[in-house]
Amino acid sequence: MKKIAIVGFGFMGRMHYGCWKKLRGAKVVALCDSNLAQLEKASGGNIAGADQSTDYGDAKIYDDFDAMLAAGGFDIVDITLPTPLHPAMAEKALAAGYHVLCEKPMALDAKACDRMLAAARKAKGRFMVAQCLRFWPTYVCLQKMIACGKYGKVVAADFSRLSNAPGWNSGGRSWFLDESKSGGVQLDFHIHDADMVNWLFGLPEAVTTRAHLHADGGWTDHAHTLYEYPDKVVTSTVSWAPTGAFGFEAGFRVVFERATAVCSTRPAEDFTVYPAKGKAFKPKLGKGTGYENEIKWFLAHVNGTAAKGPLTPQDARDSVALVDAERKSARTGRRVALKK
After folding, report:
1. Taking the model in full, what pTM does it have?
2. How many angstroms separate the CA atoms of 21 and 189, rounded?
3. Torsion, CA 123, CA 22, CA 310, CA 108, rounded to 10
4. Nearby residues of 51 by Cβ (< 8 Å), 6 or more positions away
5. How far apart, in whole angstroms, are the C-alpha atoms of residue 12 and residue 157?
6. pLDDT for res 279
């Protein structure tokens, strides 16, 4: 039985909490948040599924991370805090001998990620960044389609992720809109699709990004990127610009030599393949959400029973570096080459 401590109990902390509760061989024994009021109320987000229970059984409650680490009594530290806190918290937990699961994005920039990688190399515990799309059945299926070559090479791919701007924190203006804290829409939200581009095709030679500033001029609300590959056209769009009751929508359109694969979450998640010959069909997908599957895999990884995973800490770092390049391109209006 592996014992879990969750640090940060907002929306994503509650999402992870619900996933851990479903697993055999795991028990949440500690919860930590500097604002204990988080544990007394539901926490909103842009998707459904987070555990909103306020009955935590015999789990110990802390409002001080260092005190929790010193008290111990657990094997895994699950960090679901705001991004600027990831490096220091992960490094402390690793140095203390714990296994660490850290929410995405890994850190605010690649330099901070490098410090986390150095700490992980020295540590006895396992370290993983929770890039959930690599475990999401739809995207896992797409990756297998590309890897097996059944439909030939990829000719073009486009990824999109759009939502109303985060407004579920104080006064309707979330800390996510402060780019110094979250990295803004390009890091916090778009990291999913940037990581998918990295996973499916490797890092591109260069990126060109165009972005739009929100009406108040204080933050980017929409960005479009072209990734340079010698043999395919790859693009992405990310946005917090939609207004009204738009909600959330994400998906992809991937054109192979002998098929086209299309997925959208609106009105409900739908993945359809249109082969060059034969009828369109919906691929058989694996079970569970990306959150459930990544946590299940990490538990097996800690136990030494996991098959090779789809993600390494270096992969997560490289995806942040990709977003670094995109943000630089957006600021300068220039093409930015990636260092490899």
Report:
1. 0.96
2. 26
3. -60
4. 14, 15, 17, 18, 21
5. 29
6. 98
